[in-house]
C-alpha cells in the first residue's frame, strides 16, 4: 500500500518536474525578406534563435534580390542554420505601383551573396506565392504568429487584400522600415547622389503604395525605423570581435560577409537594420517607443524622371496601368492621419543587440558535426 502510494506521488512529481523544466513555448515567426545584405544575418537569427520557431520564409523580387537568386540563397543560408527545412516562396517581381527600384549594383550584390561561397542544396521553393504561403502557414497554427518584414511590404499588402480574415492570427508585425526624425537613406554617395528624396527609407520607398495599405490595416505593427537602427552602428572593432568569436558555419558565413564589406563598415554607414528587427521579435524590450498613427506619402505625377526604372512593365501585376509618383516624397513615413496607431520604436539597447547576434549565430547545430567552412584562424 505504502509503496504504491509512493510510486503514485513519485509519478506526479516527475510530471510536474517535466512540465516546469520545459522551455516556454517558442514564438512562431514568418520571415518576409528581400534578401539584401543584412537580411542574411537576420535570417540566420530567426532560424537559430532558441526562443523562436521559424515557420517559413516569404520573399519577393521587388527589393534587393531577384526571385530566382533569392530562392537559391534562402535554401543555402537555411542549410547553414539549425532549422534548414522550413518552406520558402517568392512573390511579385515589381512593386504594386510606381517605378522605383534599388540601384542595380546593390541588387547584383544581393543576388550573389556578396561573393561568399555557400553550400548548394537540392531544396526547391514552395509552388505557392509568398502571400499564399503566409496564409497556409497561419492556417496550420492554433497559436498566434509574429510576422517579421525586412523588405518592401508588397507580399504583406497582397496577403492582407486576399486573406483579410488572417489578421486575427497575427499577434505582431515587426517591420524594419521607415523613419521619422532621422534623415532618410535614399541618397547614397556614388549611387543616388542627386536624388531629391531626403526623408524616405528604402523598404518603404520601393513600394510605398503597399506600405500605406499595411499601415492602414490595423495589425499590431512595431516600426523598427532609421531612428532606432541609427543607434546600432557596426564598427570595425565590432567586426573584429565578431571574427574572433565566430565558431559555427552560420557565424563564419556572416564574418566573411563583413570582411567583404569592410569598406562599408569603415564608411560608418553600416548599421543593424534587419537584424535589429529580428532580435526585437524575440526580445520586445529592445523596442521602447510610443503609439502613433502613421501614413505613407505617395503622390501620383504625370511622367517619371531619371529615377524611373524603365525596365518595369507599364501594367501592374494586378492589371492596372502603372503610375508615376513624385520621387521627392514617395515613401516618406509621417506621423498623423487616422490610421490605427502603431508602435514606433525610439530607444534600444545597442550592446545587447551586438552581444545577441554573436550569441545566436554561434549556437551549435547538435544534429550534425559536418562543417562547410574551415574554422576561423585556420589556413583557409
Ligand atoms: Ca532587407
How far apart are the termini?
Answer: 68 Å
The kinds of small molecule bound in this structure are: calcium ion
Poorly predicted segments? 12-22
Give the helix proportion (percent range).
25-40%
Question: How would you classify the helix and strand content by structural class?
Answer: alpha/beta
CATH fold group: Inosine-uridine Nucleoside N-ribohydrolase, Chain A
How many DSSP E strands? Answer: 12
Q: Mean pLDDT, as a whole number?
A: 93
Number of domains: 1
Assign the CATH architecture. Answer: Alpha-Beta Complex
Descriptive labels:
380 residues, alpha/beta, Inosine-uridine Nucleoside N-ribohydrolase, Chain A, eight-stranded mixed beta sheet, two-stranded antiparallel sheet, 14 helices, 12 strands, 14% strand, globular, binds calcium ion
Q: What's this entry about, in short?
A:
This protein is 36% helix and 14% strand. With 380 residues, it is of the alpha/beta class. It is globular, with a radius of gyration of 22 Å.
Structural notes for this entry:
By secondary structure, the chain is α/β, with parallel strands linked by helices. It has a single domain (28-361), classed as Inosine-uridine Nucleoside N-ribohydrolase, Chain A (Alpha-Beta Complex). It is 36% helix and 14% strand. The protein contains 14 helices and 12 strands. The strands form 3 sheets. Strands 3-2-1-4-5-6-12-7 form an 8-stranded mixed sheet, sandwiched between helices. α6 links the parallel β4 and β5. Bound molecules: calcium ion. Calcium ion (CA) is lined by residues 34, 36, 39, 150-151, 274.
Amino acid at each position: 500500500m505504502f509503496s504504491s502510494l509512493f510510486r503514485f506521488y513519485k509519478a506526479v512529481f516527475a510530471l510536474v518536474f517535466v512540465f516546469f523544466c520545459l522551455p516556454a513555448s517558442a514564438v512562431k515567426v514568418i520571415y518576409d525578406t528581400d534578401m539584401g545584405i543584412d537580411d542574411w544575418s537576420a535570417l540566420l537569427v530567426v532560424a537559430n534563435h532558441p526562443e523562436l520557431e521559424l515557420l517559413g520564409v516569404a520573399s519577393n523580387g521587388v527589393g534587393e534580390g531577384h526571385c530566382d537568386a533569392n530562392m537559391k540563397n534562402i535554401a543555402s543560408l537555411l542549410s547553414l542554420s539549425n532549422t534548414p527545412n522550413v518552406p520558402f516562396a517568392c512573390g511579385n517581381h515589381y512593386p504594386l505601383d510606381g517605378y522605383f527600384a534599388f540601384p542595380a549594383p546593390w541588387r547584383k550584390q544581393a543576388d550573389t551573396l556578396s561573393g561568399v561561397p555557400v553550400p548548394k542544396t537540392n531544396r526547391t521553393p514552395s509552388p505557392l506565392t509568398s502571400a499564399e504561403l503566409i496564409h497556409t502557414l497561419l492556417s496550420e497554427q492554433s497559436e498566434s504568429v509574429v510576422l517579421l518584414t525586412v523588405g518592401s511590404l508588397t507580399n504583406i499588402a497582397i496577403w492582407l487584400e486576399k486573406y483579410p480574415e488572417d489578421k486575427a492570427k497575427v499577434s505582431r508585425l515587426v517591420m524594419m522600415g521607415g523613419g521619422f526624425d532621422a534623415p532618410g537613406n535614399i541618397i547614397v554617395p556614388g549611387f543616388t547622389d542627386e536624388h531629391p528624396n531626403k526623408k524616405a527609407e528604402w523598404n518603404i520607398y520601393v513600394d510605398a503604395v503597399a506600405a500605406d495599405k499595411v499601415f492602414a490595416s490595423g495589425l499590431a505593427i512595431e516600426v523598427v525605423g532609421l531612428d532606432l537602427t541609427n543607434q546600432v552602428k557596426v564598427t570595425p572593432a565590432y567586426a573584429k570581435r565578431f571574427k574572433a568569436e565566430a565558431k559555427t558555419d552560420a557565424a563564419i558565413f556572416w564574418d566573411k560577409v563583413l570582411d567583404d564589406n569592410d569598406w562599408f563598415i569603415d564608411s560608418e554607414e553600416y548599421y543593424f537594420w534587419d537584424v535589429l528587427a529580428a532580435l526585437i521579435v524575440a526580445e520586445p524590450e529592445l523596442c521602447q517607443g510610443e503609439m502613433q498613427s502613421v501614413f505613407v506619402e505617395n503622390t501620383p505625377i504625370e511622367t517619371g524622371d531619371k529615377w524611373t526604372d524603365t525596365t518595369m512593365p507599364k501594367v501592374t501585376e494586378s492589371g492596372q496601368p502603372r503610375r508615376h509618383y513624385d520621387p521627392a516624397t514617395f515613401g516618406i513615413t509621417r506621423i498623423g492621419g487616422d490610421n490605427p496607431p502603431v508602435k514606433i520604436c525610439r530607444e534600444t539597447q545597442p550592446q545587447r543587440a551586438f552581444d545577441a547576434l554573436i550569441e545566436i549565430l554561434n549556437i551549435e547545430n547538435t544534429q550534425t558535426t559536418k562543417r562547410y567552412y574551415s574554422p576561423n584562424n585556420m589556413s583557409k
